[in-house]
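Help! Submission page says 'invalid entity' but I think these are all valid:
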Amino acid sequence: MRRLMLAVAMLAAAALPEQALAQARKPSIEARLQRAEDELAIRRLLVDYATALETHDAEAYVALFARNGVWINGSMVRKAPDEIRALVVGMFGKRPPDFVNRESFELVSNPEIDLDGDHATVRSRHLLFRRAPDGSPLPVLSGQYEDQLIREDGKWKFLRRVDNPIMPTGAEWLAKMRARAPAK
Amino acid sequence: MLARMLGPAGAANLHDYHIIGNPRIDLNGDRATATSRYVMVMRGADGSPVPALAGVYHDDLVRLHGKWLIKRRVAEDIMPSPEEWHRIMEARRAKP
């Protein structure tokens, strides 16, 4: 028993310098504030992406990607601004200047942000709603984003965004889209 | 409990997820209380996402060794109620 108490006391003594070290290792206020600002900026980036999709704004969408940015969904891979622009212009078509989207919106949620200097690894969820025939919001597609971000010219950008459709799966979604598309 | 509910670790879950929102956090030193909302979305018959269960989490949190951990979490199902949810799950299990 006595030996055990001695061991406990030694452990407690050994823990003290560890605590002091932890205190010394605590990042500066500036470093902590930078992390908080980075995390806020990244949360905003996730929302801006959804907004660009909702408003069919191809230029705003492209501007969220890094110069070497890559967008991936299943076997579809689009690299750098030109390919990414072509993708969304093809998806959105020509946007009238007074365009207001009453047909769909994206709800983004559950951001998990791991910062590493000028890089970050991020996961988040999205849920796409469409307007049902009676006007009510109908959830039609949910997925998970897996992102590699980079700080480029002082701004957080997508270096690699992987969009994993989950409900329905990518194959199911494509089949639905084909069924929706007007017959040619 | 979780091992039985969740199945093998690391397997991709294509059947449900939780949207979490509306965090309200009251800090008190190394302790905190919080409430937040959840909506569990489940895969529907045609693969589309269907909101299946919504509720409120009531949490007691504690900071241990510099990390925030859940001390106590109460999940209060609102829509449907626990009784309604139980009936829905029973009906689902009864299906061949």
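Support: the input was valid. A stray whitespace character was the problem, and the output above is from the cleaned input. Chain A is about 45% helix and 35% strand.
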